[in-house]
Amino acid sequence: MRRPSLTAAAGGTLALSLVLAGCGADSDSGGGLSVSDAYIPQPVSDDMAAGFLTIVNDSSTKDELTSVTSDQAGEITVHETVGGSMREVPDLPVPAHGQLVFKSGGNHLMFDKLKRKPKQGQTLSVELHFTKSAPVVVKMPVKSATYNPTTGH
Q1: What does pTM read for this prediction?
Q2: 1: exposed, middle or buried (Cβ count in 10 Å: 0-12, 13-18, 19+)
Q3: pLDDT by residue (tens digit) across 12-67?
Q4: Whole-Å CA distances, 20 to 13, 97, 118, 129, 132
Q5: Residue 115: its pLDDT value, please?
C-alpha cells in the first residue's frame, strides 16, 4: 500500500494552495489503484481550497476518476488546467500501468463550500470514486500554506 498524496492550487484573485502528502496518512487501495504523496496546504480562504494528488494504476485495465466526496469537506469537483485556464471536468482517465497526476498548474481538485476551514495539523478524509475500481479513501494531512512537496517544507 502506498502513502496518499494530494496537492492543489487555485488561481484568480484568491491564490490557494492545497497539496496532499503522505506524512503518516493512509489510503485504501481499490482494484490495483493506490494514491501517493497526499497532503493539503492550509487554505487561505474559509470556504474554498484546491488539491493535487497522484493516483497509480498497477493494473492492465484503464480506469477513470469520476468524483471525489467527503463528509468533512463540502463539495469537491475535478478540474484540469489547459493553457492557464482551469475548467471542471466530469472525469479524468487513469491509464493502465500508469498515473493520473494532480499538480500545481495542472489537474486538481476544487474544494468548495467547506464545512470548516482545514488547519495545519488536522487531517481531512476524502473518497475517490472510479468507473471500474472500488472507491479509495485518502486521509490528507493539512500542511502549512507555503508547503512545497519537492522540498518537504
Answers
A1: 0.77
A2: exposed
A3: 322 233 333 333 334 444 459 999 888 777 888 888 887 878 999 999 999 999 99
A4: 23, 22, 12, 17, 24
A5: 87
Cell of 30: 481499490
Contact criterion met (CB below 8 Å) for 20 and 6: yes
pLDDT number for residue 5: 36
| Grid cell for residue 71 | 463528509
**What end-to-end distance do the CA atoms of the chain give, in Å?**
24
CA distance to 1, 4, 65, per residue, from 104 (Å): 25, 17, 18
Spatial strand order in the sheet of 92-94 = 40-41, 136-143, 123-130, 63-69, 92-94
What the block records as the C-alpha cell of 56 is 497509480
The residue type at 149: P
Residue whose C-alpha cell is 478540474: 79
Specify the residue for cell string 496546504: 41
Q: What is the mean pLDDT of the chain?
A: 79
* Cβ 19 vs Cβ 147: under 8 Å: yes
Question: Position of cell 466526496?
Answer: 69
Q: What is the grid cell recorded at 2?
A: 502506498
Q: For residue 93, give the C-alpha cell.
A: 482517465
